[in-house]
Predict the structure of DNA helicase RecQ.
Amino acid sequence: MLFAAEPLAPTIESARRVLKKYYGYDSFRPMQEDIIQNILSGQDTVVLMPTGGGKSVCFQVPAVVQEGVCVVVSPLIALMKDQVEALKANGISAAYINSSVGQSEQNNIAADCLNGYLKLLYVSPEKLLSEGFLNLLRRMRISMFAIDEAHCISSWGHDFRPEYTQLRVLREQFPQIPIIALTATADRLTQRDIQQQLRLTEPRVFLSSFDRPNLNLIVRPGQDRVGGILEFLERHQGESGIIYCLSRKQCETLAQKIQAKGIKAGFYHAGMTPNQRAAVQEGFLKDDLQVIVATIAFGMGIDKSNVRWVIHYNLPKNIEGYYQEIGRAGRDGSPATAVLFYSFGDVMSLRDMLTKENPNLTQLNLTKLERMQQFAEAASCRRKILLNYFGETLAQDCGNCDICRNPPTTFDGTELAQKALSAVVRSRERVSISLLIDVLRGMRNQAVLSGGLDQIKTYGAGRDLPYLDWYSYVHQMLNDGLVYIAYEEGYALKITDIGREVLQGQRTVPMKKFQPAEKAEKAPRGRKAAAAAAKAPPVTREAQLFEALRTLRKRIADEQGVPPYVIFTDSTLQEMAVERPVNRVAMLGISGVGMKKFETYGEAFIREVLAHGGNPAAQAELDEDGLPDHLDPDDFSSARTVRKKPVKEAKEPKATTSEVNGTAETTHQLHRMGLSVEAIAQRRDLAISTVQTHLTTCYAKGLELRIEEFLKPEDLAEIQTAQAQLGSSPMLRDLFDHLREKYDYFKLRLALMYFKKLRGE
Ligand code: ADP
Ligand code: ZN
């Protein structure tokens, strides 16, 4: 075989081929490529990337293209198992050794290492440091050491693992072998510890942005959380998610309420036995449980990529924890949602807790809590605040948080503030926030009556406004420094000097109008309609097929005893539902379908697509039985160039993402992550028309769009009819007029392109 051999020194091109062949992805994410270049050059590498950023590919792909075994140090047994399963499902030979693996199995694995069969060996730090294992390492050919979750080395971090500090042994005993350290923690102390303790020699450090643009950030007032959650679940049927609570009791009761709605939910907290916990985790991984209600103990070290949402029932203690927890949603890059319920009561109980918890750290912890509170109460782009906290600046507002989606309107709140301040003074500065609101709204409850508060002049002066509105305005007054809370006096509100000036009419108070939750959380873009009709969401063909594919995935996963996302991620299934691939080339063109997965699952999924009508454009081209020929690996290269749409387009190779001009590509990526055109324009500081042009350009070049965001099926039908009336290729202008300006040019252009693609042109 003259041409089959890989070049001696692996190149980025061979890495790219491996990415397509084994993972089914067309291109590296920007930083992955640089990292892999660096690793292939034999240098030490440090990778700091947020959860879901795609760290695994960074060492797995080089491991495949290089000679020898890549030894991966990983702290958690569950994580190792998951990663090895995922690798095997992609056709890459990998194994793990830890305390759960029996001796004879270990011997087999050792043999596989020595004969060069294995590409990756995962090992726990304890095992790695044992003399027996070091001996094995000395006898085998090692391509590199990858230290996963490398922040465990730092005693500053929350996941400190003492064994990790022994890992310098690797550099001492194997000075020639490059080391790559990976973590999702970015702070400087941790970074320094990693480099020093691993004895890395002038490593290149890759710090990727910690932004996760596909996460839609939402904060809602803490009233009626249970109602809010049940409503949310109705709008997110079938989607996996995690709800974080503070207490065990809360976990259990909330899980019961969710179960009562017929949703498969489980709870998870530290009071359960290890077996019970493992069973719940397993149920979640396997999609047997849709929802987990958990204390923060849940989620660490699970790799489930199709978690679609995370809800915080309570305010987290700090932004680090919050960010880590919401980071568990949307790891596959598809749109995901993070909802935080916020009430001032949570701040109070957390303050109490932190004050008691660790006296040495009280001040630090309270400051962190304050930053968290500021985030929750913010009236400006939330992502900016988050990234700021991690030392990053976002030039533009993000367009994908509740504030950006529904910017609050301001009004002159002086009179409102005066009413509240007057009530504070007249009740002799003894009332808490909730009692103040009760007084303003003229409530006749025990606390009001027993304090004689129904007798003061401002009693009932604010009865025209609902509780939540007042709640928001009093918080704004707090943030603006008109009042403060005397924590030591039962959280009584006190007026400040500024507050007095307002009361005396010497100062005006601009306020942000309160927006009720339903409005604030209105679903973005094309999902609006779906959200409005939450009770009976319209079932599109795509949604139907997606459901069917999910069911199939679940069935196969159960048969094989692996989590469903190991078979295909949600985004891969989504793409299948849109593209409806019915032959080999088309199926291999789907992102996430590599060779091995095609061989194993391709036929089953093609059958499912066919059962749903298949892709009409591709039907004509099918083999007689409608199924793929026996796979011939040499054919594979054609699938690489023929991205997406099968059949006729095969004549003219389609562009891969990297071939489309860079800036349009960025727009396209954000679009695929679920951002609306407006959000992308805002975020990138571009005109809406520019973003639209980017999208049509990408669409024309063969990249996929979420058409449903712009055009509903009935829109498409209407445009198609108009087109038929005007002849097959009407001028846009005529179409625009004919439809009485109902659709803008962007939509019309898209629709025409869509029809063209359907016809296979
Ligand atoms: P991390 O380890 O940083 O949390 P993962 O390695 O689990 O992230 O990757 C997150 C998701 O992104 C996975 O589903 C992975 O398959 C996917 N992914 C990684 N690299 C790419 C790529 N180049 N193109 C498309 N998807 C990718
Ligand atoms: Zn924003």
